[in-house]
Amino acid sequence: MQTHPHAGHDVVVIGGSMGAAEPLRTILADMPTEVPAAFFVILHMAARSSGILRTVTSAISHLPVHVAEDGMAFQHGHVYLAVPDHHLLLTAKGLIRLGTGPRENMSRPAIDALFRSAAAAAGPRVIGVLLSGLLSDGVAGLDAIKRCGGLAMVQDPIDATASSMPRSALQTIAVDRIAPAALLGGALCELIAQPAGAAAPVPGEILTEVAIAAGAHTDVDLTARVSSPSPLTCPSCGGVLSTVNDEGPLRYRCQIGHGMTADVLESQQRKALHRALAVALRTIEERVALVKRMAADHRANDRLVAAESYDGRAEEYGKHIEVLRHAIASSTED
């Protein structure tokens, strides 16, 4: 897609998860037929979901909607939807690439990957729009857009069904526009019409992470370009996590290439802890049942000393059970 150096913001990337479908429909329905921008959309979806296509096509009929294909050229006035289990990426030549790189924030397609690739491909011509959603996927990508001269727009967290995604963006990034769902379309049209600034060199770490999402082979040397080793473990593969070296939200990557923000990592650790505690609780409950049965057997055969020993073990294990139940309840509440 060829554009004049001082054209408006003609690349719009939109991401969200829980509660983002209705704001997305509102935005696209408010776009004029001859809107001078191409739109790229990711709503987090299951690996075999087709729900995003129904969500978008049910809202608009005046803009052509496409399921993204590798190598597809994008055009103004068209909407392109991410496909399951592939990162949606853009190139400087105006083409779509479907990346096979590792999941980011436990997702593929990942909002961060799309936003980051748009920043690298179109720099100051990009508008990133972050809608309602959980945790913070999209925040690092929105930061990349800003670093490359683009604009950032966020749904008002007060208006969002799930506020953590837009709220995380506001805590990290100087966004250009905040609006409730009903006003997002109008605000976006205003930003699209603004002239884009001059392009600047894309930071090398952004290009590296785009390559990882595309499916580039990752190793220690590649990871070292963008991160420093940490004592943490990747919840996806069990490998060593490294801290990503940028000024955006706290993030990690492993040597396989899995990437995640700190809150996504904490969420995965909490789930793993809950599972481990549940296994421990079940094991000790079975242990109590066994030693009680052994105590009864010894008592029935007049082996009272042994019976009392097993009774003591059952009592001790019972205390452990109460501690574990409290820990499980606490981890669920968190």
Summarize the structure.
The chain has helices at residues 21-29, 51-57, 111-122, 139-147, 164-172, 181-193, 204-214, 220-224, 262-300, 304-333, and strands at residues 11-16, 38-43, 65-67, 79-81, 87-90, 96-99, 126-130, 151-155, 177-179, 227-233, 240-244, 251-254, 259-261. With 334 residues, it is an alpha/beta fold. The protein folds into 3 domains: 11-193, Rossmann fold; 217-257, no CATH class; 265-333.
Terminal Cα span: 47 Å
Q: What's the pLDDT, averaged over the residues? A: 91
Q: Please name the CATH topology of the largest domain.
A: Rossmann fold
Give the second-level CATH assignment, the architecture of the largest domain: 3-Layer(aba) Sandwich
- Quote the beta fraction: 15-25%
CATH class call of the largest domain: Alpha Beta
What structural class do the secondary elements suggest?
alpha/beta
Question: What low-confidence regions span 5 or more consecutive residues with pLDDT below 50?
Answer: 2-6
Kindly report the spatial arrangement of strands forming the biggest sheet: 3-4-2-1-7-8-9
Ordered list of secondary-structure elements with their pairings:
Layout: E1 11-16, H1 21-29, E2 38-43, H2 51-57, E3 65-67, E4 79-81, E5 87-90, E6 96-99, H3 111-122, E7 126-130, H4 139-147, E8 151-155, H5 164-172, E9 177-179, H6 181-193, H7 204-214, H8 220-224, E10 227-233, E11 240-244, E12 251-254, E13 259-261, H9 262-300, H10 304-333
Parallel strand pairs: 1-2, 1-7, 2-4, 3-4, 7-8, 8-9
Antiparallel strand pairs: 5-6, 10-11, 11-12, 12-13
